[in-house]
Amino acid sequence: MHLGIKNHKCNQGDYRTSQKSALKKHIDNIHLGIKNYKCDLCDYKTAQKSNLQNHSDSVHLGIKTHKCSQCDFETVLESSHKEHIDVIHLGIKFTNVINANINQHRKANFNTI
């Protein structure tokens, strides 16, 4: 039975998990920069297979399944779509969003900064 106890802790940060294999993956990906999945069409590399598929769909095939109903923004990731709406259209500020990109988008789409 899985109890959700996160007894495996990263010694380089705050990351905790209940699975030893997830901790190893975290260390390999985040701290060691190991990226085993490589795009056949460009130099893109990633640690997760799903990221490679999203990259291929978006960059090389032009497939963007999530479209903003308020402007021309399109993305392959649902999380990016939600973040776009929150930041651009609802004005919610996130520390992980680069302000220059937000301002560039606002200026291009709404003539405001």
UniProtKB/TrEMBL annotation:
Q: Tell me the domain of life.
A: Eukaryota
Q: Does the keyword Repressor apply?
A: no
Coiled-coil annotated spans: none
List the protein's name.
Answer: C2H2-type domain-containing protein
Query: According to its UniProt record, where is this protein located?
Result: Nucleus
Transmembrane spans: none
Q: Which organism is it from?
A: Cryptolaemus montrouzieri
Q: Which UniProt keywords apply?
A: DNA-binding, Metal-binding, Nucleus, Repeat, Zinc, Zinc-finger
Record-annotated C2H2-type domain positions:
37-65
